[in-house]
Structures are given as C-alpha cells and as structure tokens.
Write a structure and sequence with these properties.
This protein is of the alpha+beta class. It has one domain (4-53). It is built from two helices and three strands; from the N terminus they run βββαα. It has helices at 35-38, 46-53, and strands at residues 4-10, 14-21, 26-33. The chain has a three-stranded antiparallel β-sheet with strand order 1-2-3, with no helix packed on it. The protein is elongated.
C-alpha cells in the first residue's frame, strides 16, 4: 500500500491543505484565504484577520 502525506499550512490570513502520494503526485490541494476581507486596505489588517478566525 502506497503512503500518503498530508500537508497543512496556516498563516494569519491563509489556510491550506494538500494530500501528496509517495511518488510526489498532488492528489488534492485546497486554499482558504481572507483576501476579500483585506483588499480594501491594501494589506492584512491584524484585527480583521483575528476576528475572521473566530
């Protein structure tokens, strides 16, 4: 049975996960971001990012 690897990444405004096979094929990849919440400000607003995590 081939092994699968789960990768998880999180930052103040992005969260991502991916499943990769033993032969390095990406089987699944998804990213959730808060870009639309911060776009009007030209960058990340820590208070908005924190509230969106709640």
């Amino acid at each position: 049975m081939a092994r699968l690897f789960l990768g998880i990444e999180s930052s103040c405004d992005d969260t991502a996960a991916a499943v990769v096979s033993e032969d390095r094929r990406i089987l699944s990849s998804i990213v959730a971001d808060q870009a639309s919440l911060h776009a009007a400000f030209g960058g990340i607003v820590p208070e908005i990012a924190a509230r969106a995590h709640a």
